[in-house]
Amino acid sequence: MLEETEAQTAPDGLVRVLPEHLANKIAAGEVVQRPASVLKELMENALDAGARQITVVLQKAGSELVQVVDDGCGMGPADAATCFGRHATSKIANADDLERIRTLGFRGEALASIAAVAQVELKSKRRSDAAGTCVRIEGSTFVDQSPCAAPNGTSIAVRNLFFNVPARRNFLKSPATEFKHLIETFQFLALSNPAVGFTLVHDDAEVYRLASSDEGFESALRQRVSQLLGDRDGASLVPVEEATSYLSVRGLVGRPEGARKSRGEQFLFINGRYVKNRSLDHAVAAAFGDLLPKGTYPLFTLFFTLDPRHVDVNVHPTKTEVKFDDERGVYGFVRAIVKKALGDADVIPSLGDGFAGIGRADASPVPDIRPIRFDVSNTPERPDPTVPRAASFHMPEADEAPRRTTPVPSSAEPFAVDPLEESEADTLGLGERPPVWQLHNRYIVTPIRSGLMLLDQRAAHERILYEQALTSLEGGLSLSQQLLFPVTIEFPPADYELILELADDLQKLGFDLTPFSGRTVKVQGVPTGVSRDSVQRLLEDVLDQYKQYRNDLQLSGRDSLAKSVARRSAIASGTSLSEEEARKLIDELFACETPYICPHGRPTMIKVSLDELERRFGKS
Ligand code: ADP
Ligand code: MG
């Protein structure tokens, strides 16, 4: 009874607005977890302020001092004080700007939160002002503000973090651990801003001095990575660069021999923001396959750009985990492009550098060989590419009207391009011989009815060779030529066994091999287009690739073999093609069963529709 009455007459006025300093302290619990979170917020503010040079001064792993000095735009006396207010930000003026929070995490909370749990001194001067301003604030309490002498820019010193929250101060980890977090923060911000110079001083000793670089993306990043991450020579870093309409990725990966025992050298950025995603770490490692010693992690610094709608980046300022709406697609893509980058850089499988360890007699560098030449005139047994193979591709008559337009590979449909979805009428008006251009010796560009098509020449050629090899392996015609002077090759024991195991299939591919003596094999015939000099390299590469695919992907033997041959024989990116060669490549590609993806699942082509072009030019 009594309880009921009490409930009915519950006192009013219990809900209060928290005093600001308390609110700040609570917010600080989210934003400021350790010295490294302070460093991140201060460095990001300096970058936002347009700094070209940033100096970080730390003492006692940040527990005594985290100071960031920049030469950015500075603040006038009024802003120097108000910037510590809760929700004080110059970066969001209206609701439209809120969208940017999703990507960059502006919340106007950082300085207020930091000042709630530390002793902060800010000095700032704008270029246009004669004098600077100094503001001091401790545990959200304003101490004083006065004019001062200061260089252009801003310096914020954060002392004795958690001085007023003993429980949290005691919660800080060992100086070594806190320092590790500070370094990680400094590193990811330095990596994503190579045009800015950075210096880091800890306990009066200079740890890093990184010159700014205004060179192109790749060389600037190379320089920065090699200065930041150990004693590496920039040349040992392999560039990665690929784009689809869903995702573009660029950056650098380290060679396997430089891989470390921890993940400390793995940096992933999405739309400029440092993030973590275990599955992508794994995708990169998987691309190395066997080359990576067990328990080691390769260096990488990769920048992803994609429509923010496809990625769930937690707005929370201290959380870095992300998820993609197409995790599996992104995983496959990343693994494939890193693998390709390693292959292009001759890391996979490279006989000369480190990988030769499996008992190779000849570890001398071999020039880039492309054994099966691209010229189809020497492959007369190939079916006429203008005759449709199976029922998969129907070449339109010149006057045949397009039946429907091809769906645009819009950003909403990431990787899957289903060949059956494509309208054959759209692929090429071959009767009209549309112009064909080669772009940067890597891509082939041609207009199509619905817009334009970009072909990755290497991926396309791999697809063609892969299907040819599969046909040969399945008992189709093999394209073999006898060698005038047979080649004898000695293999290490394991490889020799493998050669014997694969002998039948190798023969179907066009190799004519006989065991000779010991572990020596005599090669009397090779697939058409393979030169005598390149036989050994090709066989060794095919074996290496085969082993790798078999372990990695658990593919059937034939599939592995076909992929290996295609991979090692396809024309490289960077090979100049004549117009006729480019045309033949297109024709042959469209004669394939699955023209739209390479054997590793990457797209061989990208189509851009007129609609999309119109949209990009703001016309619809
Ligand atoms: P946010 O960065 O989300 O806007 P902060 O609390 O980090 O919120 O900073 C508040 C404001 O203080 C910023 O919007 C900016 O106007 C100003 N500010 C902070 N640091 C600097 C700096 N180093 N140089 C110039 N202005 C700064
Ligand atoms: Mg900020």
Write the layout of secondary structure elements.
Elements lengths: L1 H7 L11 H12 L3 H14 L4 E7 L5 E6 L6 H6 L15 H7 L5 H7 L2 E7 L6 E7 L2 E8 L4 E7 L6 H6 L3 H17 L5 E6 L2 E6 L6 H12 L8 E7 L3 E8 L11 E5 L2 E3 L2 H11 L11 E7 L4 E3 L8 E3 L2 H18 L79 H4 L9 E3 L3 E6 L2 E6 H17 L6 E11 L2 H17 L2 E4 L4 E8 L7 H19 L3 H13 L9 H12 L14 E5 H7 L4
Adenosine-5'-diphosphate binds next to helix 3 and helix 6.
What do you see in this structure?
The chain is an alpha+beta fold and 620 residues long. It folds into 3 domains: 8-209, Histidine kinase-like ATPase, C-terminal domain (Heat Shock Protein 90, 2-Layer Sandwich), CATH 3.30.565; 213-378, Ribosomal Protein S5, domain 2 (2-Layer Sandwich); 413-608, MutL, C-terminal domain, regulatory subdomain (Ribosomal Protein S8, Chain: A, domain 1). 33% of the residues lie in helices and 21% in strands. The chain is built from 18 helices and 22 strands. The protein has helices at residues 2-8, 20-31, 35-48, 77-82, 98-104, 110-116, 166-171, 175-191, 217-228, 278-288, 327-344, 424-427, 457-473, 493-509, 535-553, 557-569, 579-590, 610-616; strands spanning 53-59, 65-70, 119-125, 132-138, 141-148, 153-159, 197-202, 205-210, 237-243, 247-254, 266-270, 273-275, 300-306, 311-313, 322-324, 437-439, 443-448, 451-456, 480-490, 512-515, 520-527, 605-609. The strands form 5 sheets. The protein has an 8-stranded mixed beta sheet. The chain has a 5-stranded mixed beta sheet with strand order 9-10-13-11-12, with helices on both faces. A hairpin with a 2-residue loop joins β11 (266-270) and β12 (273-275). The longest helix has 19 residues, at 535-553. It is elongated. Mean pLDDT is 78; it is low at 1-6 and 349-431. The structure holds adenosine-5'-diphosphate (ADP) and magnesium ion (MG). Adenosine-5'-diphosphate (ADP) is lined by residues 41, 45-46, 49, 70, 72-75, 83, 88-91, 106-111, 154.
